[in-house]
What we know:
The complex is a heterotrimer of chains A (1001), B (415) and C (100).
Chain A: E1 13-22, E2 25-31, H1 35-41, E3 46-49, E4 56-58, E5 70-74, E6 80-85, E7 96-99, H2 113-116, H3 136-148, E8 163-175, H4 179-190, E9 195-198, E10 215-216, E11 219-220, H5 221-233, E12 238-241, E13 244-250, E14 254-260, E15 275-287, E16 291-293, E17 306-308, H6 309-317, E18 326-331, H7 335-345, E19 349-355, H8 363-370, E20 375-377, E21 379-385, E22 392-398, E23 404-411, E24 414-418, E25 421-423, H9 426-430, E26 435-438, E27 443-446, E28 453-455, H10 465-482, E29 495-496, E30 521-523, E31 528-529, H11 530-538, H12 544-551, H13 564-575, H14 579-582, E32 594-595, H15 596-600, H16 617-622, E33 626-630, E34 633-638, H17 646-659, E35 662-665, E36 670-675, H18 679-686, E37 699-705, E38 711-721, E39 724-729, H19 734-747, E40 755-758, E41 763-769, H20 773-777, E42 781-782, E43 795-801, E44 804-810, E45 818-824, H21 825-840, E46 845-846, H22 849-858, E47 907-914, E48 926-928, E49 941-949, E50 954-962, E51 971-976, E52 979-987
Parallel strand pairs in A: 1-7, 8-9, 8-15, 9-12, 15-28, 17-24, 18-19, 18-24, 19-20, 35-46
Antiparallel strand pairs in A: 1-2, 3-4, 5-6, 5-7, 10-11, 10-29, 13-14, 14-15, 16-25, 21-22, 22-23, 26-27, 30-31, 33-34, 35-41, 36-39, 36-40, 37-38, 38-39, 41-45, 42-43, 43-44, 44-45, 47-50, 47-52, 48-49, 48-51, 49-50, 51-52
Helix pairs in contact in A: 4-5, 4-10, 6-7, 7-8, 11-12, 11-13, 17-22
Chain B: H1 5-14, E1 30-36, H2 40-53, E2 58-61, E3 77-78, H3 85-99, H4 101-105, E4 116-120, H5 123-138, E5 144-146, H6 148-154, E6 170-174, E7 178-179, H7 182-195, E8 199-201, E9 206-211, E10 217-222, E11 225-234, H8 240-245, E12 254-263, E13 273-276, E14 281-285, E15 291-297, H9 309-322, E16 330-341, E17 348-351, E18 357-361, H10 371-384, H11 398-401, H12 407-410
Parallel strand pairs in B: 1-2, 1-11, 2-8, 4-13, 11-18
Antiparallel strand pairs in B: 3-7, 4-6, 5-6, 9-10, 10-11, 12-15, 12-16, 13-14, 14-15, 17-18
Helix pairs in contact in B: 2-7, 2-10, 3-10
Chain C: E1 3-6, E2 10-13, E3 18-22, H1 36-43, E4 52-58, E5 66-72, E6 78-83, H2 91-95
Antiparallel strand pairs in C: 1-2, 3-4, 4-5, 5-6
Amino acid sequence: MSDGFRIKGGRIDRAKPISFSFDGTVYRGYEGDTLASALLANGVHLMGRSFKYHRPRGVLAAGAEEPNALVTVTRGGGRSTPNLRATQVELYEGLQAESQNRFSSLGFDIGEINDLAGPLLGAGFYYKTFMQPKGAWAKLYEPLIRRAAGLGEAPRHPDPDHYANRFAHCDVLVAGGGPAGLAAALAAAQSGARVILADEQNEFGGSLLAETTATIDDQPAQDWVRATIAALNAMPHVTLLPRTTVFGYFQQNFLGLVERVTDHQAAPPSAVARERLWQVRAKEVVLATGAIERPLVFAGNDRPGVMLASAARIFCNRYGVLVGRRVILFTADDSAYAAALDLFRAGATIMAIADLRTNPTGPGVDAARAAKLPVMPGTVIIAAHGRLRADGVTLGAIGEDGAVRAAGDLPCDALLMAGGFTPTVHLFSQSRGKLTYDEARQMFIPGTSVQRERSAGGAKGTFALAAILAEGHAAGRDAAQKAGFTSEAHVAPQAKGDIPVAGGFVGAVPQPKGGVKGKAFVDFQNDVKATDIIAATQEGFRSIEHVKRYTTTGMATDQGKTSNMNALAIAADALDRPLPQVGLTTFRMPYTPVTFGSIAGHARGDLFDPVRQTPIHGWADEQGAAFENVGLWKRAWYFAKPGETMHEAVVRECMTVRRAAGLFDASTLGKIEVVGPDAAEFLNRLYTNPFSKLEVGRCRYGLMLNEAGFVMDDGVIGRLATDRFHVTMTTGGAPRVLAHMEDYLQTEFTDLKVWLTSTTEQWAVIAVQGPRARAIIAPLVEGIDLSAEAMPHMSVKTGTICGVETRLFRVSFTGELGFEINVPSDYGRAVWDAVWAEARKHDVCAYGTEAMHVLRAEKGYIIVGQDTDGTVTPADLGMEWAIGKSKPDFVGKRSLSRSDLVKPNRPQLVGLRTADPGFVPDMGAQIVPVANPAPGSSAQGFVSSSYDSAVLGRSIVMGLVAGGRARMAETVFITRLDGAAAPATIVEPIFYDPDGERLHG
Amino acid sequence: MKFSALALLKQALSGEPWPEQWRSPEPKPAYDVVIVGAGGHGLATAYYLAKEHGLHNVAVIEKGWLGGGNTGRNTTIIRSNYLWEESQKLYEHAVKLWEGLSQELNYNVMYSPRGVMMLAHTEHDIQSAKRHIHANRLGGIDNEWLTPEEAQAFCPILNISRDIRYPILGAALQRRGGTARHDAVAWGYARGASALGVDIIQNCEVKGLRRAPSGAITGVETTKGFIGAKRVGVVAAGHTSVIMQMADVQMPLESYPLQALVSEPVKPVMPCVVMSNTIHAYMSQSDKGELVIGAGTDAYTSYSQTGGLHISAHTLDAICELFPVVRRMKMLRNWGGIVDVTPDRSPIIGKTPVEGLFVNCGWGTGGFKATPGSGHVFAWTLAKGEPHPINAPFSLDRFRTGRLIDEAAAAAVAH
Amino acid sequence: MLLIECPYCGPRPELEFRYGGEAHVARAADPATVDDEHWTAFLFWRGNPKGLHFERWRHASGCGRFFNCARDTVSDVIVKTYKAGEPKPDAARLMTGTTP
């Protein structure tokens, strides 16, 4: 097909022809085209199908507000993007676009049957049917509806592109690069302010890019744009961001921008991000976001070939495309005459200019009359005809009585609508500014500001070019001044010769008595008709929020940019209430849809969350360890030898520890250094246990409660000096514990002189556990007497190991003789290697967290977060011994006496000896009194720890059981997912070496 | 007028307008019961008061428009796979009502039990998921464990690669969980209640709670004047503290912004609901085709109905990891609700220290799923002056005794 | 994202802070003497006002200090931040200057 509708002029580069395809047909366009302009140049108006009725649709607009022409662009390798507006897709060589939401082809769509069934499918029809029989909705109706709904197809493959993300600060952010924005940016920049100017289009200039008659500072408007951009570009403190949408306005002048970096390129370099999210904190903001033309609501206003007059003018002047040869205009606004004149000069025949106004005046009307264009005052379009392309209209004359009478048909191939402009107040509204209704001009404009911003130009309802430029200039100066920059005496650009927006119409166009056959659309994409809105009000939906939700008007991907005002006016009319009283739906971010990927940015794969690794991680990796995620940490889980299963490895690791010894990387253990003259008293108040009398060189188990009395953490605390403690805590709990301690230290116990420092990352911790532990480390340790007498269980000494300073703990989480060697992290790997070399002489192994869990469970040692769940008290754990009885107070103490916390029959930690020693219950299995409890039965508790113990040759189980400690030897049952609950006997929660002989060896 | 396919056809042929779905009356001087808040919970309460307790002299007063609060702002997830027995009974009661709600109300609320899958990413998650499954099965609630492969078979776009930062190690699936159409729930209850004589009074803000010298409630002061009431039920979600303050009742509540977002609509790609508590994200697909995505709350209390971009960003990070095919899709709309959160993340449904004043609040981020059950038991409570056995444990008093129902702590991560 | 004025470090983005709930909820010097009602109030009852809210923040990824903040929970405008331990400012006086 030839591009027969291409005319002279425009901003496209005719030296760079581009071939592209739409639904498999290859067409020609030029660099600078959008997909929409290039298709129109080829005479293609039919670009999409509507959501509900599958009506054939053409392009309505030329920019971000486009509701109809949605396409999927694919560029291979998972790069498929649905629901792109053809009016914003920049053409590149080889571009492949597909139409959407049609079953077969755009020209023949069986979904169009819905159009015929229209009377059945009115607003909210689905709430009134599909209810019988019960259950049929989800099984029968919903799947059908879901298949029919949706627009494009979601991509099928993971997106190979990447996205960037940056934060920025500026003095003045200007949103929108049309005349107001350019004037504002220039004025602010000339004052010396750091300026960011962002515009969603590929070039700056906004409406001026399609301006033909106006001059600015005595040069053609487009020349002024070029000069202004050059001036801004030359200033180092100005950042120009084309293809960048300011989509969100958050608290305290924080704005979200998305920059489309590569989508317009034929072959984007793989190293470049596809899009970039800018999060900008601006001292001052200028909103120069322009205005959007409204369609007029009449039957058939959605036919392909029916479009906004401003869009037709843009296609003509900016892209060199004639949208039709026989053109009819339907207007209530003087600016449409500029479109008529431009299309006329470009060679189109203007069949009629139907003007709703009975006595239109203005420069546009005058110029049209001078050019002998057929101006028809007091005329409406009653209906537009044609299925796949508009081919004619029925005109109506408005009589002196206001009644409309049919006034004959006219043929056409394009029909341009001009219902006036709606200021784009989205960002202003997002900033929480209050909108004001301008009764005379029937538009919402920015009222009271809440944040540091001001609007200028079309966004403020200002439409004459001279006034727009003056306002933009003033806004830029004001913003710079408020940001602390005194403006030099630059003057605002001067303009003349434009045909400004004047007039407009909201609501449904007057119709002949008795109505008109055919659908008059308000929301094009969601197929919401004027009659749907009226029907909703009749059904009791009186607030615009209700009308919106019931009819779905304004909820399509264009978010009602062209439809909201008409919907509101029709609802107000039907309810016979003033328009502002019916309300305006709130504007929420984003202004236009934003790619998930650009919001997520770099947060994928390993960068999704930071990875914390211990100094010994590399060694474990070399040994083939499997790792598990614990908080942000990667912990060595088990060390399987070739051919070993996980279970076999864990059995071997456990048995080796019990027989000889094992090495365990405990570096992830949380550590806080608590220092100061009141350190012991501070710990007294933060832990249940007493610390005042703990001797230097000794350790004590510490149990930490929250203020509600429930266990929140535990760990071993060693006293290094009278005023210095080495406090350890759970790996996952460390940040929480530090925050908890700081909270009390800074805000409650301000009388205490204590300093807290997180040392988790400063110490590598090598646990050597097992009967040979002392023998392994002895050759390496200097300055510490390791004998049982000098260094008993629960003691800490400082000295050196391999020449490196160490805090050596004699502690055990296995029940064996054990040491935990703390060395500065930088030496962690070297000391580990040395200990490992020594250990190998004793035929030992390294063990991971799984074996650690088994070994500690054999001894009945709890893990906070596994054997506790935030509802457990020290007494529930049988840990009354850990409570310092003589302490007047500690965090959580007062709550422990609340009535439910002292109730008998609370769940208490016990051991459970399964009748079948081979039965290892699920952790989380429920404890019940019978093997087959009826559904809906209550549980008596649950299994918190459950492992296969190699050393005992049977399963070991701990759980919290109601009143459990008084029920020793009682039989209970443990639920299974694959059969009846299995019996177990309640026993003490300690399974191995109950007398602790091995511990003290 | 009964809704049905036949009625739809008749209306289409005749062109007659449908009747109003609910009346919009002016308030009467007094009612037996006044419910503050015309969200789903409040309207359901009114409906069941009239339907099951014969109380027709009931008003629901609403500051804005009915269903305009959290009912119309949530991500519509329905499930009953809670850990504690008290919670299970409450939410399961609701699910049972959901199953027949469209027929009960003669309003298609589009309850769709498409399955709710909760992902496990760590060993701790697996233990927690298994505990839920065992507890749910015992409680007579369906919940099953899926391997990563089974999870992907249930939701084909799920990424079960072992190489991601938090690989999916399995999932707990409640097949009877799903979604419903949120607006329809409010509208359906409003229509049903109105037909039974309940007055729904919109655009009527409560300015005070009037009390007798004895301290008992006598009615509410509103922007439409004083409305007498023998009993007042406050069902005001995020604004509960504000209303209760009018009767000098302090509440264990904090109101947080909760954001949600939807994508542009696409053809069906997501057959179920997937939730990940560990990496904070959940997603389903609406009948219209939008991916419906939930985030965590913002960090601070607020009544602003907005939140920070970083909260949505964190959610989308997670969504793109779990479902890498959606990375090129676009966020269409983002909005915020105000959720009232209790210390144990469980609701408060019952009496207050003020005679005649009852409260139903504290649903936090998960109230939608409970709507029918919550209204049902609260109606009982208001009618009888005593809690229904199901809501008895959810008393205000539990914060004094320590008998908390802590669903959040049970999911806590440590070790 | 809020911009929060740390009294020690100056304005910083919200990401650096942790919210700490309502401020000026004092823990009794001797909790043992507090009855259940008052202890419950201390633990759980919160004003949760719609309007000016006095709250705690911690500059967790900065100086680590807790401080107090007066914020309008309707507009999220931060009216004032001040160091922990300083007296609670007069609410009425603060609200007159809410608009930035």
